[in-house]
Amino acid sequence: MSFVLIFAVLHCITSLWLFFLDFGRALSHIDSPRTPTLGERVVSGPSTLLLSPIVPLAASSKQISSLFPGLLGYVPWVANSVLWAFLTWWLIVLGRRLGARRLARER
Predict the structure, then answer these.
(1) In a 10 Å sphere around its CB, with 0-12 CB exposed, 13-18 middle and 19+ buried, how is residue 14 labelled?
(2) In terms of residue numbers, what domain contains 87?
């Protein structure tokens, strides 16, 4: 359980940091027709990946936005990080079980 908590906290901090970094860089050339630089694309890709699937859905839904006004708007961010943590934990457990099963078959 500690893995899930630590992973969720680190994921939330990282995704928020990347989002605000990407947002700030995008705002710096909002009125400019130039295309994003390689550095901006490198930040934007992981930011978009880490925020999916819950944050984009929550941002586009008026019902969810009305449920979480103000600082509660970070609830979908935390829920997204917890989802990522559980999925990562599940994949690690699954990988260990499959590895143990393969090792048992070889003996």
Answers:
(1) middle
(2) 2-106
Query: What are 33-74's pLDDT values in tens digits?
Result: 888 888 888 888 999 999 999 998 888 888 888 888 888 888
Single-letter amino acid, residue 70: G
Of 44, 51, 49, whose CA–CA distance to 78 is shortest? 51
Structure tokens at 93: 């457990």
Q: Which two tokens stand for residue 69?
A: 């006004």
Kind and range of the H or E run holding 105: helix 75-106
pTM for this model (two decimals): 0.81
- Distance between CA 65 and CA 67 in Å, rounded? 5
DSSP assignment of 7-60, as one string?
HHHHHHHHHHHHHHHHHHHHHHTTT--PPPPHHHHHHHHHHHHHHTTHHHHHHH
> Within 10 Å of residue 33's Cβ, how many Cβ atoms?
5
CB 12 within 8 A of CB 94: no
Domain count along the chain = 1
